[in-house]
Amino acid sequence: MAGEAAAKVQVVGVIGAGQMGSGIAQLAAVAGIDVWLQDTDRAALDRAGDAISDSIRRLASKGQIPQSGISEALNRLRFTLELNDLRSADVVIEAIVESEDAKRKLFSELDKITKASCILASNTSSISITRLASQTQRPSQVIGMHFMNPPAIMKLVEIIRGTQTSDEVFATVKALAERFGKNIVCSRDFPGFIVNRILMPMINEAFYALYTGIATREDIDMGMKLGTNQPMGPLQLADFIGLDICLSAMKTLHGGLGGDRYSPCPLLIQYVDAGWLGKKRGRGVYSYTDQGNKPSPRM
Ligand SMILES: NC(=O)c1ccc[n+]([C@@H]2O[C@H](COP(=O)([O-])OP(=O)(O)OC[C@H]3O[C@@H](n4cnc5c(N)ncnc54)[C@H](O)[C@@H]3O)[C@@H](O)[C@H]2O)c1
């Protein structure tokens, strides 16, 4: 039944054409769904178009999708500055900045623009789905659909049910994520859900280790990478996620759960104040001097 509902999803709207939104739009297009990708920034849409095209071609060169799938997927994508273009969407997935005020305003607008049956999903890292749902007249159709970065590669989608999310909407979104080829975990709606409730304090602690001079950034990362068998260290991971996202998530954990242990590290705050937002801005804990994935050893 749920699989049938997901199969009936023909149009997906994605809002926010940054690192997450562009990856989510790509997943939907490759899965055979028509996609509207909306952003308020024309340059972000242009970058997303290039990134998706490169990524789909890379997947085809590795044999992960057929060559004929390249143009099929690209032809399913539409880029727009107009929110109104999402009115035909069966599911909207929001992936704008991690700001509760901005997301609340957007959900209120989406409620007016989208058709009555449309499901409104948020890719938020930590913000309450129940509070976003309260901005709409359809709280039973609002849900968290938390993709991991980069969405095209990572195998997990964390689904968060708000207090009023219906069983039917949960089942449809679960089946949609499976149609994207993802594994599912389900979390109740508490700050940070499962993954970021555990990951963000670890990243924050790595910042404290750097801030208090316990070790160099390289040794902190190498220690955690080789000592706990992770693909990269927490400081490099923070750069990949975006330090602004990490700071917002820590503020949400701190505000929602209380206690000193969730207090954002002053060094993390200072880097964000300096505009050192991570790889996407060319500078975070590390400096990124080219398009490569490796942090430069230079400050
Ligand atoms: N970066 C990660 O690793 C990661 C992982 C999982 C979830 N998330 C979540 O995904 C969301 C997006 O993160 P990101 O890393 O892609 O951010 P990003 O900064 O790369 O992109 C955000 C995009 O949203 C656009 N935007 C901002 N306000 C908008 C609005 N009102 N309407 C339309 N577009 C708007 C911006 O122009 C920008 O292009 C956040 O909620 C974040 O917490 C991020």
TrEMBL record:
Site feature: Important for catalytic activity: 146
GO molecular function term, any single one: oxidoreductase activity, acting on the CH-OH group of donors, NAD or NADP as acceptor
Alphabetical list of SUPFAM superfamilies matching this protein: 6-phosphogluconate dehydrogenase C-terminal domain-like (SSF48179), NAD(P)-binding Rossmann-fold domains (SSF51735)
Entry keyword set: NAD, Oxidoreductase
Pfam families named in the record: 3HCDH, 3HCDH_N
Positions bound to NAD(+): 16-21, 39, 98, 103, 125, 149, 280
Pathway note: Lipid metabolism; fatty acid beta-oxidation
Reaction equations catalysed: a 4-saturated-(3S)-3-hydroxyacyl-CoA = a (3E)-enoyl-CoA + H2O; a (3S)-3-hydroxyacyl-CoA = a (2E)-enoyl-CoA + H2O
Cleaved signal peptide residues: none
Residues annotated as domain 3-hydroxyacyl-CoA dehydrogenase C-terminal: 192-288
InterPro entries: 3-OHacyl-CoA_DH, 3-OHacyl-CoA_DH_NAD-bd, 3HC_DH_C, 6-PGluconate_DH-like_C_sf, 6PGD_dom2, NAD(P)-bd_dom_sf
GO BP field: fatty acid metabolic process
Positions of the 3-hydroxyacyl-CoA dehydrogenase NAD binding domain: 12-189
Family of this protein: Belongs to the 3-hydroxyacyl-CoA dehydrogenase family.
Protein name: Uncharacterized protein
Annotated organism of origin: Spirodela intermedia (Intermediate duckweed)
Lineage of the species this protein comes from: Eukaryota, Viridiplantae, Streptophyta, Embryophyta, Tracheophyta
